[in-house]
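Exercise 3.2. Students should predict the tertiary structure of the chain below and write it as structure tokens, then compare their answer with the key that follows.

Predict this chain's 3D structure.
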Amino acid sequence: MNTTSKKKSADSLFIKINKWLHLWLGLVSGIIVLIVCLTGCIWVFNDEITGLLEPETKVEKQNKPVLQPSQIGAIAAHLYPDKVPAYAFYQQGRAINLTLKDPKEQGRRGGGISIHIDPYTGKVVKTDVRKKGDTDFFRFILNGHRALWLPYTIGRPIVNYGTLIFVVLLITGLIWWYPKKRNNSTRDKSFKIKWGASFKRVNLDLHNVVGFYSLLFLLAIALSGMVYGIKWYREGLYWVSTGGETLAEYKRLESDSLQAKKHYTPQQAMDKAWLTVITRHPKSAGFYYNFPDTAHSKSTIGITVYPNTGQFYNSQGYTFDQHTVQELKREDIYSTAYADAGFGGKLRKMNYDIHVGSILGFPGKVIAFLASLIGASLPVTGFLIWYGRNFKKKGNKKVVSVNATDRLPLKRRINIVKNESEPVLASTSNNLLNTKKS
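Answer key:
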């Protein structure tokens, strides 16, 4: 009796399609999921690891004002007169991280110099010089996470839609995992790993059981990651979560070039914008300061406020005219305070923290790390299951001949043996009589 074929034929069309999708989509996207999940679980702790590797950048908080943008700009100009300040990251308990660039360089992917400056004394505690094309370890990890180390125009779409396939795999995997019958046996197989069993059984349990326990976390990580790469998904999610509102696109604001050199010097304007923001947010844990490109009269001053260390959901951005220091009205979601945003706006502002787990603080990052590690294991365990079922070595197969009656209950087998024994005995006695006569 071929029970395997009967089991397959008993599956509905929906189950057959579900299993087919899970199998082949998993084989197609396995390498993508493996790389994205592994790099993701490393990236989760980039701030903590960087802090441990750079102990000299740790600065105890003091009850005195920190250096203003013009002051750290002057320090940089003294050390590197051929460079201009691009942006600075003020973080409580750490040195100011000031990045310099060549005046002719556009964007952030060129070379540059990072100077770590004590926010109270102005002492340079660390300097990193980066040539064009150079990347540090975590930038290398992030490039792999975002684009598989391919050119962004090629790698980004592959990662984006590979993540979408991963979401489908999680859903089809849940459907496949769900047992048809609920009893003690199926409950143990669904929720427990049988560590003392064979390698194949343990591998199967690692794929099914551990995959089930990490399902919700992996869905949250994958769905939040798709926000950054798939426009129709990002806009659709915002539309649904806000009850029909359209997500405002980020628009680059411009300074009034006609006001150049009429009100403030560049240094005065930088400091005035800085003082305006820190006066509004005196207890914030971090500030990201984007210096204006003074060679371009339409360039602006940008400042982002981070109230909590390691979290970004309640950040708020400000933009100022570099000539008049007038605050320019931004229309994107990040210009609105978290407390004033609706549900859809809050969800959008929380997206990065959900993606890396920091929305739950450090324990959330641990969960995100473990979930990503499990996500990386799923293509491996899944491939081993598929390979073991389809490419077994014939030498390892044990051919066992099983009579169909052996699968029946004991009482039915006894009855069958009794019924079949009578003609056998009659036939034997007839043969004996014929032998005697002859």
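Discussion points: Residues 1-5, 420-438 have pLDDT under 50 and may be disordered. Strands lie at 84-91, 96-101, 112-117, 124-130, 286-290, 300-306, 316-321, 327-328.
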